[in-house]
């Protein structure tokens, strides 16, 4: 959160679009550190299996699509 505040309070004059790009990059890095792609994929596969076994195939497909 402090990185986002730093981007918004930067002494550099940035357009709103540039600020949002920088915020999006901070969020992307935070997301990858909190939910690394491989473990997240495994977790979603397990969730998809449970959903499929309980008859919720649409949700199972959505879990696998991520």
Give your account of this protein's structure.
The protein is an all-alpha fold. It folds into two domains: 34 residues, no CATH class; 31 residues, no CATH class. Helices cover 79% and strands 0% of the residues. Helix 1 packs antiparallel against helix 2. The longest helix has 19 residues. The radius of gyration is 18 Å and the shape is elongated. The mean pLDDT is 88.
Low-confidence stretches: none
**Strand-and-helix sequence, N→C?**
HHHH
Spatial shape: elongated
Helix content estimate: over 70%
Distance between the termini: 25 Å
Write a brief structural summary.
This protein has 66 residues and is mainly α. It is 79% helix and 0% strand. The longest helix has 19 residues, at 16-34.
Which keywords apply here?
66 residues; mainly alpha; 79% helix; elongated
Secondary structure blueprint with pairings:
Elements: H1 2-8, H2 16-34, H3 37-53, H4 57-65
Helix pairs in contact: 1-2, 3-4
